[in-house]
Amino acid sequence: MSSDFETYEQDFGTITAEVTNKIGKIPKLSGEEKTQLVLNVDKQLEEVRELLEQMDLEVREIPIQSRAMYTTRLKSYKQEMEKLEKDFKRSRIAYSDEVRNELLGDDAISSESQLIKLREERAHLLDNTERLERSSRRLEAGYQIAVETEQVGQEILSNLHTDREKIQRARERLRETDANLGKSSRILTGMLRR
């Protein structure tokens, strides 16, 4: 199982390196070229999400005593993914100086303050959206942990109930044996008196 996890880790590293490189190129492009690169990066990010889901499934299959190490690694990969998504969103709205001047023409200098303000507002909205997404993921993870904890608790209760029944049966057998020994003792005592 851990070998599958490590294979997913290698794939994760390769794809995220490619994505990081492409995200850096996006602001420098325009038109169809930019659109194609954005679609390509979006597709690769979806692959990374699927890899993280596969890693999550693998971690759940690992025995509890060695699960903590893999859980920590998975958590750091998820944080890296969040950063990549954040960078990707920012790169789509960022423009290089050449593209900005081309779009704005002679009014570029006078419109620069408006553009900066728009960027700040977009960045603020993106941050808020990301916070909401993170909170939703945390809530979902908390709910999942609660469900798993409830299942473990039910298993423990079931095991305790079974153990209690076994102990009660053993106690009954001991009482029967004790009663039989008492009868045997009385019979032997009677035989000795005769």
Write a structural description:
- The structure is a single chain.
- With 194 residues, the chain is mostly helical.
- The protein has helices at residues 2-25, 31-61, 64-93, 97-104, 108-193.
- Helix 1 packs antiparallel against helix 2, helix 1 packs parallel to helix 3 (64-93) and helix 2 (31-61) packs antiparallel against helix 3 (64-93).
- It starts with a helix and ends with a helix.
Quick overview:
The protein has five helices and no strands. The chain has helices at 2-25, 31-61, 64-93, 97-104, 108-193.
> Rounded to an integer, what's the Rg over CA atoms?
33 Å
Task: Please give the number of β-strands.
Answer: 0
Distance between the termini: 75 Å
Mean pLDDT: 84
Count, helices: 5
Contiguous low-pLDDT stretches (5 residues minimum) are: none
Give the SSE order as H and E letters. Answer: HHHHH
How much of the sequence lies in strands comes to under 5%
Largest sheet: number of strands, sense, barrel closure? none
Helix-strand category:
mainly alpha
Helix content: over 70%
**What's the overall geometry?**
rod-shaped
